[in-house]
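To whoever is covering the structure queue this week,

Two jobs came back overnight. Logging them here so there's a record in the thread.

Job A:
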Amino acid sequence: MDTKLTLKLDKYVIEKAKEYASSHKRSLSRLIESYLKSLIDKEESDLKNDIKISPFVKSMSSGVRIPVDFDYKKEYGDYLSEKYK
C-alpha cells in the first residue's frame, strides 16, 4: 500500500535528484523508496551478521559447482605445464 510522504529538502538537492531519477528512467518517489529500503535491509542484515549478495552479483552466477577441496593453484599449475610442454 502506497502512502504519501512530504519531505522538506534543499531546492538544489531536489533538482539534482529529479535529474538523476529521470536519467535512470525512474520516478523520484521510487528512487527514494529504493534508497530507504536499502537502509532498512542493510540494518536488518547487519543485525543478522549475514553476508548479502547484490542482485548484480547473483546474476553473474554461472551455475557451476566447485568442490570445497578444489586446489586452484595445483590445477592452474597443471594447466600451464601441459600448455608449455
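Job B:
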Amino acid sequence: MYYVYALKSLKDNKNYYGQTDDVDKRLSLHNSGKVASTRYRRPFVLIGYKTFETRNEARWIEYSIKHHSDKKNKFMSELKSQK
C-alpha cells in the first residue's frame, strides 16, 4: 500500500503534501529534520492520508495536489470528511 499524506507545520501553519509507503516513519523523518525540503518548518502534525494500491497512482495524486489548487482543495475536503 502507498499513501498520499498531508502535514501541517506548527511553525508557519502551512501544509505539506507527500507520498510514502510508511506514513509514521515519514512523519518521524520530517519532524527529525532529515527531509531537506521541510527541515526549517518543523514540527509537523499529520492532517490525514489516503491509501492507493500502486506507487505510480500515489505519485500522480501527489503531483496533481501540488500543481492544481482544485485537486488540493478536493483532497483536503476528502480528508476532513473522513474524520
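Note for Job B: The helical segments are 23-32, 55-67, 69-82.

Please reply-all if you pick these up so we don't duplicate work.
Q.
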